[in-house]
């Protein structure tokens, strides 16, 4: 459009100069055409703007990650005149829709319509605006643009998956004194266990066969049958990275982990407390499977824009919470301050678990691995999340 305007201005100036210096019928005809044609073109575009009709349909508003949303729109011309240039722009982000909804430039012939149907994969949890953001009516000279914006935006909510808790078990690496607590979806209230070397008298039923074969040494599981029934979940909602596409993948993994853990315990009727910072400290309590719905809505819509690090988050809650608890901390940014705080909570008699979402390329990988190794050796349950099937 910018080029068309420059071309028109050049032609207009040339016609004006020609009239000024030459005069005559033909120069005046060209000059008048340069004045009249844009006016006619603008009026024509205004007519189209007032007359065009469109219909937009989508299948549902609430989805779960991995679902496909059916989307359909059509634009119709009920007049005898052609609609030469109609440019349709969409809200849908590339992250959600994988570039399915790109701008479309259409020409609609008289008494016809153009219809498009798409199946859009909901790749990540979150709240998204989907559909037409604006319709631009461009005149046939391509120098004017009338923009129509729908009166209301259409939002969809994509909920995280609730994956089996077994997906978040880690492949533990052990030395003789290393202990890592993990989760078993089938053990109920005795589902947390430590690992140690086999000693005479241990039952063969408690042998961890997979790890024993891996390390060529007998390793057995010792269950903690008195796990504290107060479950506290801490979400680290700090911005992970400036790379939007990488950040949304990491955030998605973290949210899926906390979703699955909270669902697991609430379905087992454990009291669960969720604590996070979103412009203020927010605490959400649940005691039964029905309460999971309020958790689930939070997980779908929460944004990663917190300024409070995880250690400060834990401190803010635990300094006023005197009951012994089982702590689950979820983060993609582990550091020495988090390790120190979790070690303090463990020494205070709490069971402590750290869920760490690993980045594909982390310049601080060696530092992070050292912190994770120290945490595991200190008896903190470490769960490294690299991918979720």
Quick structural gist:
With 389 residues, the chain is an alpha/beta fold. Helix content is 32%, strand content 28%. It has 2 domains: 51-159, Sandwich (Immunoglobulin-like), CATH 2.60.40; 165-192 and 227-385, Rossmann fold.
Classify the helix fraction into a percent range: 25-40%
Q: Estimate what percentage of residues fall within beta strands.
A: 25-35%
User: Can you count the helices?
Assistant: 9
The gyration radius over C-alpha positions equals 31 Å
Going by CATH, the architecture of the largest domain would be 3-Layer(aba) Sandwich
Rounded average pLDDT: 81
What is the domain total for the residues?
2
Order of helices and strands: HHEEEEHEEEEEEEHEEHEEHHEHEHE
- Please name the CATH topology of the largest domain: Rossmann fold
> Largest beta sheet, briefly?
6 strands, mixed
Which segments are poorly predicted (pLDDT under 50) over 5 or more consecutive residues?
A: 170-192, 224-228
Q: What structural class do you assign from the helix and strand content?
A: alpha/beta
Secondary structure: number of strands: 18
Report how far the terminal alpha carbons are from each other. Answer: 47 Å
CATH class of the largest domain: Alpha Beta
Order of neighbouring strands in the sheet with most strands:
15-14-13-16-17-18
Which geometry do the CA atoms define?
elongated
């Amino acid at each position: 459009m910018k080029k068309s305007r420059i071309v028109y201005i050049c032609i207009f100036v040339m016609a004006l100069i020609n009239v000024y210096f030459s005069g005559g019928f033909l120069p005046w005809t060209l000059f008048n055409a340069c004045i009249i044609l844009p006016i006619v073109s603008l009026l024509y575009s205004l007519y189209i703007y007032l007359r065009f009709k469109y219909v937009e349909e989508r299948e549902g508003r609430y989805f779960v990650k991995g679902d496909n949303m059916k989307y359909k729109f059509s634009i119709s011309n009920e007049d005898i005149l052609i609609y030469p240039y109609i440019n349709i722009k969409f809200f849908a982000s590339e992250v959600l829709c994988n570039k399915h909804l790109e701008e479309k430039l259409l020409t609609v012939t008289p008494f016809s319509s153009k219809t498009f149907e798409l199946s859009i994969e909901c790749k990540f949890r979150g709240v998204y605006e989907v559909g037409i953001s604006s319709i631009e009516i461009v005149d046939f000279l391509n120098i004017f643009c009338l923009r129509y914006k729908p009166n209301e935006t259409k939002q969809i909510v994509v909920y995280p998956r609730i994956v089996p808790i077994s997906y978040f078990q880690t492949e533990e690496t052990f030395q003789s004194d290393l202990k890592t607590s993990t989760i078993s979806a089938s053990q109920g209230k005795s589902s947390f266990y430590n690992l140690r070397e086999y000693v005479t008298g241990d039952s063969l039923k408690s042998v961890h066969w997979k790890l024993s074969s891996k390390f060529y040494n007998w390793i057995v599981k010792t269950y903690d049958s008195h796990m504290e029934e107060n479950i506290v979940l801490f979400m680290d909602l700090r911005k992970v990275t400036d790379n939007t596409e990488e950040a949304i993948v990491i955030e998605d993994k973290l949210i899926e982990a906390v979703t699955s853990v909270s669902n697991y315990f609430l379905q087992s009727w454990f009291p669960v407390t969720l604590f996070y910072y979103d412009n203020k400290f927010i605490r959400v309590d649940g005691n039964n499977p029905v309460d999971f719905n309020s958790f689930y809505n939070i997980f779908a819509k929460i944004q990663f824009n917190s300024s409070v690090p995880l250690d400060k988050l834990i401190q803010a809650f635990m300094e006023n919470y005197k009951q012994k608890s089982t702590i689950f901390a979820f983060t993609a940014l582990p550091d020495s301050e988090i390790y120190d705080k979790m070690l303090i909570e463990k020494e205070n008699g709490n069971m402590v678990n750290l869920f760490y979402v690993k980045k594909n390329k982390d310049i601080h990988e060696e530092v992070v691995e050292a912190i994770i190794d120290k945490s595991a050796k200190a008896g903190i349950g470490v769960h490294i999340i690299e991918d979720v099937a």
